[in-house]
Design goal:
GO terms for molecular function: oxidoreductase activity. InterPro entries: Amino_oxidase, FAD/NAD-bd_sf. The chain is α/β, with parallel strands linked by helices. Helices cover 32% and strands 22% of the residues. Strand 12 and strand 13 form a beta hairpin. It is globular.
Length: 416
């Protein structure tokens, strides 16, 4: 068993967890990673004294798999205040705790966002979902989230002022066409846990997984060209022979026969600016309801974790879902929108860096919480892992890494 050549393609969360689980069964896998660090879609850069995550991401502390693989106290998590700062046409106001304790939400602010009945419905939904298991949620019939919210009786007011801007940023699509299963799952996770970031950036999560590895080797800057049978062709012309191959990235990139099997992924543009000081001054997400604007959500990262800025300026992260504008125009328009909502002159928002994230989330038709481990195996040599098999979340990435490793271990177990 020990001398088995097991290769894992991709050092994202799924690949790292797969390696961890294989080590527990006595294997020493090799990870082939195309970039220069672990993390896959979860990476953090250091630029001009700031920590820049690739895309605005948060860790939901209530995710079940997170407790298995991550030492949360060691990540020194910094939590967001539940709720959001809403910037509407006229002014800004805070709704605190709308998912955690809606009936306690201060009446005035909530009345602008939704009706009293919306409050009651929000409370009822929270209580229902607390009682419902994750498996039950993913076994339910699937509706578009927008339809689900209307069927539940939420008013147009709260749908456009809160649900749309809040969940657009999570689903990375404007019309809330994402399955109601994902909505219920995320809503449940938000209402029983916290949204948080590691003190020193999201990269700390894959780094922590990597630190738990013992016998796994990782080859960085080693992109794979294609996989045929049990052979891995690298872009540098080398060919590797494998006993087992775990593809922990979207497989159509390396298996020609799988091209066309996947819907286009969700994209996002993440822009970073520095400003003399935060105009929100609280660890909260800023949302802009309505249509016709570029900014979907914004957050001053150093309001959440001061380590994100080692300069005397504040770090603003802005997410934009879709645009035809070129980068220069986009920056200018976003600065103008920031001036409009904050009253601070657009030139004061100093542009730092943009990330055009072409693959931010997988687009999945049939969302699941888990799959039988036999479904991870596609040939005697090739196995699949990745959140695209389940649902687009950190929890799904960790789950699928565990499942694909179990599938490989099972393939070595003699049947009687």
């Amino acid at each position: 068993m020990k001398d088995q050549k097991i290769y894992i393609i991709g050092a994202g969360l799924s690949g790292l967890v797969a390696a961890l689980e294989l080590e527990k069964s006595g294997f020493s896998p090799i990870i082939l990673e195309s970039t220069d660090k672990v993390g896959g879609r979860m990476k953090t850069d250091q630029v001009d004294g700031f920590l820049l995550d690739h895309g605005f991401q948060v860790l939901l502390t209530s995710y079940p798999e997170v407790k298995k693989y991550l030492n949360l106290p060691a990540l020194n998590l910094k939590t967001f205040d539940p709720g959001a700062v809403i910037f509407d046409e006229k002014d800004s106001y805070i709704i605190s705790d709308p998912l955690r304790n809606p009936l306690k939400v201060v009446g005035m602010a909530f009345s602008r966002v939704g009706t009293f009945l919306d409050k009651v419905k929000m409370f009822t939904l929270t209580q229902e979902l607390k009682k419902k298991s994750i498996e039950d949620i993913f076994n339910e019939p699937s509706l578009p989230t927008l339809q689900y919210l209307k069927n539940y009786g939420f008013s147009d007011q709260i749908i456009s002022n809160f649900f749309k801007p809040f969940f657009r940023g999570i689903f990375l699509e404007k019309h809330l066409n994402t399955s109601s299963r994902m909505f219920e799952y995320v809503f449940k996770m938000f209402s029983i846990g916290h949204a948080a970031i590691p003190e020193k950036g999201m990269q700390e999560i894959p780094n922590m997984l990597r630190q738990q590895l013992g016998t796994t080797q990782i080859y960085f800057n080693t992109p794979v060209e294609k996989i045929e049978g049990n052979l891995i062709s690298l872009k540098n012309g080398e060919t590797l022979e494998a006993d087992r191959i775990l593809i922990c990235t979207q497989p159509d990139k390396v298996m020609p026969q799988m091209q066309g099997q996947f819907s286009n992924p969700k994209q996002v543009i993440n822009l970073y600016f520095s400003l003399q000081k935060s105009f929100m001054a609280r660890p909260m997400l800023g949302l802009i309801p309505g249509e016709g604007h570029l900014i979907n959500n914004l957050v001053f990262m150093d309001d959440v974790s001061s380590a994100y800025s080692s300069s005397d300026r504040s770090l603003l992260s802005v997410s934009v879902l879709e645009t035809e504008l070129d980068e220069k125009e986009l920056i200018k328009k976003v600065q103008e929108e920031l001036e409009h909502i904050s009253g601070i002159k657009s030139d004061f928002f100093k542009f730092l860096k943009s990330y055009y994230i072409r693959y931010a989330l997988p687009t999945i038709d049939d969302l699941k919480a888990s799959i039988p481990i036999t479904e991870c195996k596609i040939t005697d040599h090739v196995f699949l892992g990745g959140d695209y098999l389940l649902n687009g979340s950190i929890n799904a990435a960790l789950t699928s890494g565990r499942l694909v490793a179990e599938s490989v271990v099972l393939s070595y177990t003699p049947t009687h």
